[in-house]
């Protein structure tokens, strides 16, 4: 009797395992021309095919901010005109008698235009502290605010950009590595690198008012704002958009050219509706559309580093500041002894 009970248990287990099979193998997303690299001018087209007969209740497709119901084997199409660029996931949810089957495909949307190329012309030179490992740079009125890095040496300072004089300075705790900064509503927001938190100061007194935590972003690199929200880089292929009040990371864009998705973007500056970002370890700055992530321009700053004092601690280009009232653009680098006012020249 026990033998037959044991056989019954085994038989029931086999039935349960067979019912728990992976149904996703019975379906496939078939993209038109098998194309996974598209542009904003393209339309994402394809079908969801079934290899076995199932009683399908519904098929729902989602991509970025769009969710549509489709039919099996019927072609779907999604215009990409107003989509964000970069790497995204096309998701399909198939409902079968109370069960859900999920399928996905990686889709890359590239910019349909090549970025414009710029060189530069030096307009003015100003002294800059050669000891400053520049991480963030921003004007408030005529005063230049700067964040410097290196553990044990990180600072927040305001300076007279014409003379290089440091007017006020506060030293960060030794475990912090200072990064980008941005100013909004009489407060200074300063990132730190790997400590997973940023610092908030009173603009006038430099009193530390509060701290804020990072969530999905990996590290703190660059920071800027448009008056309504913050933009934060973290060394990945993402620029995170933060709520200006809660500082929560609400979504992200991916800086994208007509060929690739960029990463390693460092110091950020908001200039006339665009994000200017320098690429770490490169002598260049990219100009990014904050709505889509499209890289509209690339500035070649090669040769600028040769204009400063050469020494053993001389490091890369890093530091972009825009004087809004006069429309003047300034750049410098880590441990550079000069701050340059430059004019962009389209090639």
Number of strands: 28
Report the CATH C-level class of the largest domain. Answer: Mainly Beta
Average of pLDDT: 91
Alpha plus pi helix count: 1
The side-by-side strand order for the widest beta sheet comes to: 22-23-24-25-9-28-27-26
Main beta-sheet annotation: 8 strands, mixed
The CATH homologous superfamily of the largest domain is termed: TolB, C-terminal domain
CATH topology value of the largest domain: Neuraminidase
Q: Which percent range fits the helix content?
A: under 10%
Strand content: over 45%
SSE arrangement, N to C: HEEEEEEEEEEEEEEEEEEEEEEEEEEEE
Number of domains: 2
Characteristics of this structure?
about 350 residues, mainly beta, Immunoglobulin-like, Neuraminidase, eight-stranded mixed β-sheet, five-stranded mixed β-sheet, 28 strands, elongated, disordered N terminus
């Amino acid at each position: 009797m026990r033998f037959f009970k044991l056989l019954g248990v085994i038989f029931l287990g086999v039935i349960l395992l067979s019912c728990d099979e992976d149904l996703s193998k019975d379906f496939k997303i078939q993209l038109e021309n098998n194309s996974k690299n598209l542009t904003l001018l393209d339309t994402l087209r394809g079908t969801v095919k079934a290899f076995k007969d199932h009683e399908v209740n519904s098929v729902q497709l989602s991509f970025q901010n769009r969710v549509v119901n489709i039919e099996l084997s019927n072609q779907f199409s999604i215009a990409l005109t107003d989509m964000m660029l970069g790497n995204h996931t096309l998701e399909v949810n198939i409902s079968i008698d109370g069960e859900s089957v999920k399928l996905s495909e990686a889709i890359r949307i590239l910019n349909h235009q090549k970025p414009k190329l710029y060189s530069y012309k030096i307009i003015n030179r100003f002294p800059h502290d050669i000891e400053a490992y520049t991480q963030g740079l921003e004007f408030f009125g005529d005063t230049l605010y700067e964040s410097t890095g290196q553990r044990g040496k990180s600072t927040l300072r305001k300076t007279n950009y014409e003379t290089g004089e440091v007017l006020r300075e506060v030293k960060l705790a030794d475990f912090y590595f200072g990064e980008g900064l941005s100013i909004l509503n009489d407060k200074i927001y300063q990132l730190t690198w790997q400590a997973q938190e940023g610092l908030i100061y009173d603009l006038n007194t430099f009193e530390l008012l509060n701290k804020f935590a990072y969530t999905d972003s990996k590290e703190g690199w660059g920071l800027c704002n448009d008056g309504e929200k913050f933009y934060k880089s973290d060394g990945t292929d993402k620029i995170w958009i933060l709520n200006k009040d809660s500082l929560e990371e609400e979504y992200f864009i991916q800086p994208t050219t007509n060929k690739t998705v960029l990463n390693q973007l460092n110091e950020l500056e908001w200039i006339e509706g665009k994000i200017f970002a320098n690429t770490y370890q490169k002598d260049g700055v990219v100009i990014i559309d904050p709505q889509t992530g499209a890289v509209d321009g690339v500035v070649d700053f090669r040769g600028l580093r040769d204009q400063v004092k050469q020494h053993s601690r001389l490091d890369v280009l890093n530091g972009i500041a825009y004087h809004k009232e006069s429309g003047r653009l300034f750049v410098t680098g880590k441990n550079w002894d000069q701050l340059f006012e430059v004019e962009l020249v389209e090639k």
